[in-house]
TrEMBL record:
The protein, known as: IncA domain-containing protein
Domain of life per record: Eukaryota
Chain segments annotated as transmembrane: 55-74
Keywords: Membrane, Transmembrane, Transmembrane helix
Amino acid sequence: MSSLSTRCLSAARAASVHSSRRLLSTTRVVRDAAAPDLGTIAAPKKPVGAFRGGIVGFLFGFSLAASFAAYHLLDEYKQASAALQASVEELQVSTQKVSAHVRRIEAVEKDLKALSDSSATKEDVSRVRAEMKKLYDGLHVEFLDLRSHVWGIRTTRCPLSVKRIRLLFVLSKQIDRVFRETTGWRTT
């Protein structure tokens, strides 16, 4: 039986080789011409296995999720960057305000120092007050001397009536009051 099977196989091989050489035309030119290309037959698709389909699905899902996460991360980065930029601009504006306030304070301190250097101290005021009081007291003493002198001259030289003496006394009091008001000092 084995000899029969080997003979069948050798006959089938010979027939297949013989059939591939067999042409419809017997002329040599037609035999040498190339056979027209009718296209290739698509190989039958292998069915996708569960393991290979799982890996492809996992990789597709992972890349989709990664791209979605990268998009959201980039969006959050842009928002944080914009918030940081706004914060920096706000800080710059507040820094400019603070520096303007500092410049104003320095100008006020400079003016205050100039005023304190040119203003009088308590000792200066008390010294000037004492000098004014001495001057006023001296003027008042001279005024009283003058009044007594005028009074003495009037009483000795010409006899005056009581009415005129009172008038002179009232005038001297008014002169004394005007003198006190203009100088601002009280008589003692």
